Amino acid sequence: MKANVGGIDRVLRIAAGLILIGLAATGTVGTWGWIGVLPLATGLIGWCPAYLPFGWSSCRSR
User: Fold this and answer.
1) How many C-beta atoms lie closer than 10 Å to residue 30's C-beta?
2) How far apart are CA 6 and CA 21, in angstroms?
């Protein structure tokens, strides 16, 4: 797996994931908020499978 999620993208994914999980845990948004696990995981890993079919990458070119 080659990293395809760059710095700012990772930070935004982790923040969004934590916010959604926190809202779901407190019952503010309901059970759909647990979808925040996905952006959190892709942000922590640095790889997003949804980018593959499109050939996208937010990592800087070397």
Assistant:
1) 9
2) 22
pLDDT single digits (tens) 17-51: 999 999 999 999 999 999 999 999 999 999 999 99
- Cα-flanking dihedrals φ and ψ of residue 23, to 5°? -70, -40
CA distances from 20 to 13, 14, 23, 45, 50 (A): 11, 10, 5, 18, 20
Statement: residue 5 has pLDDT above 70: yes
Indicate the range of 12-16, 17-21, 38-42, 54-58 predicted with least confidence. 54-58
